[in-house]
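Practice problem 4.
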């Protein structure tokens, strides 16, 4: 037998009706008339009015809508499921054709009104007049207000971007004291049956707690959601570039001083780091309690970069320093120590001899040639002549160290030192932030 779409809908509807009951519309109407006769929705639906009503609550989160670290706003789409017992809403199903549950409008019955007590915008009661309340013949009522809930969340970005946030959303029974309406958590966690994963946050846990604000206070229920940031975005867009910039910055010591680009290069990287500092600061709240570790990390990078500029400038002075002013002995000995002159002196001494001989020759040629030009050359020439005479058998202790060599030594020292510092600060930052 062929079945059109209208027929399919018909079968579906028939199945729905069969599932409900065999009651007719007149039976349902007479039930409504019976239930709402003398029904006052302002009175708590408990027979002994000196007892508290218990309202069971489950929070189902559909999706995390927004988490703003700067404004500390946390919003999510959620449905609250509230269960309570209304003793006036009971009937014998056999009197109404087996009708065992009905739905009524939110406006018609007593409702355990809830207010968001941690709102980020204006506080509003949860329900809206289009909500319906489901009632069973045993008097059990269920109401499911669904809404976009905009709550505040105190943000702790110390370990950004490896941070875990714990956001607590609280609801309280509006106007009722806790000896009148008592909120009870039906399950110990938030419900995630309908949760759709978020692109920026992983849910790592949840907790529900009820709070009695003293006797005669309001009953409050707290839903805590623990979310962990998916850090890949920040790692790729901020951390890796910062590391690369830091290492690139150090390459200034490899750049040849003659190029005249050293200062420009390291100032540019300094500025790039400052730009990243601005970007990261825009992502984070301006809190000092606690200061995000990444701010310290960027500050250290900035200071390192400034130190690199300083070392570069001073080192350029060394590089261009005139060799007529003698290199102090302690620098010479440091240089010899670092270049390991004593340990290779024996091996290299012959090379050194030829090197210095050729050097002296070239200088003296140059000196002779430029003799007439200026006094500096002459003095250099004389100085070299002297050293040639006195140090005829060149020994390792006495071989001359020029300012250029000192400058190269400082370059290599700074290269090693800053690479180590830069890598260490990066690794220490990752380790501390990741360890929580
Ligand atoms: C109502 O409850 C209170 C407290 O348990 C009790 O003292 C009182 O007798 C109850 N009243 C009725 C009518 O049951």
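Answer key:
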């Amino acid at each position: 037998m062929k079945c059109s779409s209208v027929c399919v809908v018909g079968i579906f509807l028939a199945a729905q009706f069969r599932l409900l009951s065999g009651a007719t519309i007149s039976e349902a109407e007479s039930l409504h008339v019976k239930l709402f006769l003398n029904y006052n929705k302002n009175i708590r639906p408990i027979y002994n009015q000196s007892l508290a009503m218990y309202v069971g609550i489950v929070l189902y989160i559909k999706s995390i809508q927004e988490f703003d670290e700067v404004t500390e706003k946390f919003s999510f789409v959620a449905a609250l499921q509230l269960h309570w017992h209304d003793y006036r809403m009971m009937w014998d199903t056999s009197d109404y054709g087996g009708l065992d549950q009905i739905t009524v409008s939110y406006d018609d019955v007593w409702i355990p009104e809830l207010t968001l007590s941690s709102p980020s915008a204006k506080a509003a009661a949860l329900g809206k007049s289009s909500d319906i309340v489901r009632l069973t013949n045993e008097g059990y009522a269920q109401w499911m207000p669904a809404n976009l809930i905009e709550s505040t969340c105190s943000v702790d970005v110390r370990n950004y971007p490896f941070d875990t946030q714990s956001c607590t959303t609280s609801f309280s029974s509006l106007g009722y004291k806790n000896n009148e309406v008592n909120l009870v958590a039906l399950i110990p966690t938030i419900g995630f049956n309908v949760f759709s994963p978020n692109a920026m946050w992983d849910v790592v846990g949840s907790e529900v707690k009820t709070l009695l604000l003293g006797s005669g206070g309001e009953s409050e229920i707290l839903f805590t959601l623990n979310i962990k940031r998916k850090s890949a975005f920040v790692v790729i867009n901020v951390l890796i570039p910062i590391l690369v910039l830091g290492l690139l910055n150090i390459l200034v010591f490899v750049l040849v001083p003659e190029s005249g680009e050293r200062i420009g290069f390291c100032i540019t990287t300094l500025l790039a780091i400052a730009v990243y500092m601005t970007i990261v600061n825009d992502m984070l709240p301006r809190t000092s309690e606690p200061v995000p570790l990444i701010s310290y990390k960027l500050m250290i990078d900035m200071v390192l970069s400034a130190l690199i500029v300083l070392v570069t400038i001073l080192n350029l002075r060394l590089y261009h320093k005139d060799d007529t002013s003698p290199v102090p002995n302690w620098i010479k000995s440091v240089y010899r120590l670092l270049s390991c002159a004593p340990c290779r002196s024996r091996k290299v001494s012959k090379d050194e001899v030829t090197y210095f001989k050729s050097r002296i020759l070239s200088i003296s040629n140059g000196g002779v040639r430029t003799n007439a030009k200026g006094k500096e050359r002459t003095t250099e020439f004389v100085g070299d002549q002297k050293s040639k005479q006195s140090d005829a058998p060149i020994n390792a202790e006495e071989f001359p160290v020029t300012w250029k060599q000192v400058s190269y030594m400082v370059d290599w020292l700074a290269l090693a030192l800053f690479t180590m510092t830069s890598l260490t600060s990066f690794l220490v930052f990752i380790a501390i932030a990741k360890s929580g």
